[in-house]
Design goal:
By secondary structure, the chain is mostly helical. 55% of the residues lie in helices and 6% in strands. The strands form 2 sheets. The protein has a 5-stranded mixed beta sheet. Strands 1-2 form a two-stranded antiparallel ribbon. α5 packs parallel to α9.
Length: 489
């Protein structure tokens, strides 16, 4: 086996560990993480670490078990780390897994081409892709963890170590139910790459069948068993193609070109949504893919096949927020872009040309990422959460120490209602509600300078603070600057 450790790899890992931390850890420290989804997941690992199912307190009454929303099992063994790393547990885990995914890319290409420069440029390419920063800037998500295991699947398949490959596939599919559907197509694409190796090819075909069976079983049988009565799978939102299999078939019969059209058209009939243009969001996604190495997939179409379900669930979706570059919805592109592009470029026989093309690809990807961080068509983009290279990313328009002093005054087991950016910091308790939901809360914490979600204006928070001050049921327990802590009388 090739010795893969090097000074260059160490420098790259340290550099990007600092960059990734400056996005995620800073965001959490200055209250730019949210109830949806870090707060939900922090509350889940609190329950798992106490050996019980998560009652999905922040999403009740829609859900009474988090597994009925997304069937994610891999955070269960990680949950016990919260005793050490607290509310940063899942953020640190996510950063670690992204770094580990890059190491998998490095080892794969080092062993495949015996070229340290190719391997080093590949891991840099992996770390600079825009999809990484969208995920880091927006809390924690299980599909990021599953995605970062994919490069290691490539490593063990290349070594023809099918036992470890099977373990990797199992870990990937239990990360999240829809990741199992994606894994079906990954295995199909890889079976094309290994079509001349009967042993590996047949293993991958069987693995693909197993993944799709697992997906159907979890979505149709297991998740409904955890769901509230009459609750359907929440994440099938593709009314443009059809609301049911029967309707899909009817639409395809009447409009055979519809599946292709939906890749390009704005299926939300109103050309604007809440004042934002929507027509160019899909084009922005495609340009980012092409300039970051997707064009090279034409030489290896199996890499296109690997992303079929990811693309469909993005551009067919009723939720325009999923179409573009935002959030964690692009993370699956990251390993496939790097693995596909550098596989093609690594097969160029002229070493000088090979290095030049790889450098051009890395620089083009850096350009696309920088451009997408500075401005984008995607709706609801929060630049301050992403732009780690600007001063605005590191500051808030209020003193965060006021918030931390107030948090210290809340009893650890108190029933609490809090604003969305505060929830992830206080979710390790049995009863936690997203304000304005109060229910049986004993304390309410509000920051009138903070994101007012689900209200549209900050004035709504100020109005609620004044109402609580005048209420006979609540007393003002503490005020630190713009941060108010109310206690039930």
């Amino acid at each position: 086996m090739i010795h893969w450790k090097s000074k260059g790899l160490f420098i790259v890992l340290v550099l990007f560990a600092l960059i990734f931390s400056s996005v995620s850890i800073v965001n959490h420290y200055i209250f730019r993480t949210y109830a949806y989804d870090l707060g939900i997941n922090n509350n889940a690992i609190y329950d798992y670490a106490h050996f019980r199912f998560n009652d999905c307190m922040l999403l009740q009454p829609q859900f009474k078990n988090l597994l009925s929303d997304h069937f994610s099992l891999l955070i269960i063994p990680v949950s016990f780390l919260y005793y050490i790393t607290g509310s940063y547990t899942l953020i640190l885990f996510q950063i670690f897994m992204i770094l580990a995914g890059g190491v998998g890319v490095y080892i794969y290409f080092l062993e495949k081409f015996s070229n340290r420069k190719t391997a080093l440029l590949a891991i840099i390419h992996f770390y600079v892709i825009w999809g990484v920063y969208g995920a880091l800037a927006y809390d924690y998500h299980d599909n990021v963890i599953g995605t970062m295991l994919v490069p290691w699947l490539f490593v063990f398949l290349a070594r023809e170590d099918l036992k470890k490959s099977a373990i990797l596939i199992l870990l990937i599919i239990v990360c999240k139910e829809n990741v199992a559907l994606w894994a079906t197509f990954i295995c199909l694409g890889l079976s094309i790459s290994y079509r001349k190796n009967k042993r590996v090819r047949n293993f991958l075909l069987k693995a693909s069948l197993t993944c799709i069976i697992y997906f159907v079983f979890i979505v149709k049988i297991v998740m409904p068993s955890f769901a509230t009565e009459n609750r359907q799978y929440l994440h099938f939102n593709f009314s443009a193609i059809g609301k049911s299999p029967t309707e899909i078939m009817e639409n395809l019969r009447n409009n055979p070109a519809l599946p292709l059209k939906l890749f390009f058209i704005n299926q939300i009939h109103n050309p604007k949504a809440e004042g934002w243009e929507m027509d160019d969001i899909k084009l922005e996604l495609y340009l980012a893919i092409l300039f970051s190495g997707g064009l090279l997939w034409l030489r290896k179409p199996q890499f296109i096949l690997m992303l079929v379900p990811v693309l469909l669930q993005k551009v067919y979706n009723d939720d325009v927020g999923k179409w573009g570059l935002n959030y964690h919805y692009c993370i699956e592109f990251v390993p496939i872009l790097t693995l596909g592009a550098f596989t093609v470029l690594g097969e160029i026989l002229n070493p000088k040309k090979q290095f030049i093309y790889q450098m051009v690809l890395v620089l083009a990807t850096v350009f696309m990422t920088a451009k997408s961080l500075d401005s984008r068509k995607s709706l609801w983009y929060k630049g301050k959460n992403h732009r780690f290279y600007t001063k605005a990313h590191y500051v808030r328009d209020f003193d965060i120490s006021d918030v931390y002093r107030t948090l210290d005054k809340i009893p650890a087991n108190a029933r609490l209602s809090a604003q969305s950016p505060i929830v992830p910091h206080v979710a390790f308790r049995d009863y936690i509600y997203l304000f304005p939901e109060v229910k049986d809360a004993e304390y309410i914490i509000l920051n009138e300078m903070e994101d007012p979600y689900p209200y549209e204006e900050r004035q709504a928070i100020t109005d609620r603070i004044n109402e609580l001050k005048a209420s006979p049921e609540w007393e003002l327990f503490s005020q630190e600057g713009p941060v108010y802590l109310f206690k039930k009388k």
